[in-house]
């Protein structure tokens, strides 16, 4: 089906390679034009600006922040691996875990524990991937500002779509997920 011909599943446009010149393959194409910002610029906002330094000055909804602490905050990943993919960041601009203060480390840990409880309650996930990529060579997309990933996982969330199609299916909108997590966050920890 060609994009724009009304085809697709659930309003999502797909294309079949057999509709084009060259050697067709068995794959359909799911267009995700919103990803061009990430592909072209590497991050949003401009690469000279740190999004983790800019986010706390913004409105929580616009910045996708779900909770704020004294030394660190929690926000949704703008380019999530799964719905509910959170990042826990210190306010202070430091690149690596060994540069964080004891207070920052303690609050990152505490916010991570709370995030796990909130995600388990709101998304009914079966587990988590938690980790930090320290340095660009280790896979950090934003290497200059420490951040910990918290990715909810479900027993049946793996499929071949990301591997073969190079696309991740996210069943929920970021704004909806942010609102649900923020509303479920314990008020004593906002």
UniProtKB/TrEMBL annotation:
Listed SUPFAM superfamilies: HIT-like
Q: Which UniProt keywords apply?
A: Nucleotide-binding
One Pfam family name is HIT
- Report the residue ranges that make up the HIT domain in this protein: 51-160
Please give the superkingdom of this protein's source. Bacteria
Give the motif span (Histidine triad motif).
145-149
Name this protein carries in UniProt? HIT domain-containing protein
Q: Which organism is it from?
A: Leifsonia kafniensis
